[in-house]
Amino acid sequence: MTRYVMGRTAQEHERLRRQAAIWQQATGRLLDVAGLAPGDRCLDVGCGTGAVMQLMAERGGRVTGIDLDAELGEKAAADTGGTFVAANVETDDDAVPAGGFELVYGRLILLHLPDPVAALRRMWRWVAPGGRLVVQDYDMESTEAFPRLPVTAEWRRVFLGAYAAAGRDYRLGTRLPALFAQAGLGAPDLTDVAGRLGTMADTAGMLAATYRSIAPLAIEQGLITADQRDAFLSDIDQAGRDRPEVTMMWPLLIGAVKRR
Predict the structure, then answer these.
(1) What domains sit in the chain, N to C, each tagged with a CATH number?
(2) Per-residue pLDDT averaged across 150-166, rounded?
(3) Angstrom distances, CA of residue 213 to CA of 13, 85, 159, 208, 209
């Protein structure tokens, strides 16, 4: 797979677990709206730590996960009673059977790919007749403090700047209907927008974690130095303690569902 801009470290895996817990309710609700039924064959594309595989299994789905990270994926399959396929969604057309799943799902996968339209076509190929393709992805432009703070302005400069410099669209979630159309799927049958309004007290840790994960790439790109990285991590920790009441808007998690 094209370079995962957030890196593959134990700290990043832990961040993914925390992120999954935050969006568990929003994703479960969308799976229910999409009509996941007991016995459905479900495919989680980019399954990572297996959080969505667990949601599918809890609803009676027969779950398969796809990911390049075999260590994470095999553990996820063991934890959920599912199966795992080590595969690359960018290239592996035949990793799983065409038309083999009543529900094909991907969360926060397309924004990491240079060609999300090709990935959508591949995922659509795996959907059985009468099945559903369900995608959720971020629009990260909404991430902001109210009132605005210098430390969150710096997060936006570095984090969003690194994504853009790497050729990734950090607003991809908002473009899902257009991407579905470009992939030849037609307009989604339904869309969904989930948001989270928190405080600096409960958001500073996630801002620090995302900044830490993107920092190696940002340093390569010349956006920051190692000293600036360390200064930011100190500043955001201080902001969490000094300005806990500041309102924080998280990225929007935008979903789209299409029935085949």
Answers:
(1) 10-259 (3.40.50.150)
(2) 96
(3) 10, 26, 9, 9, 6
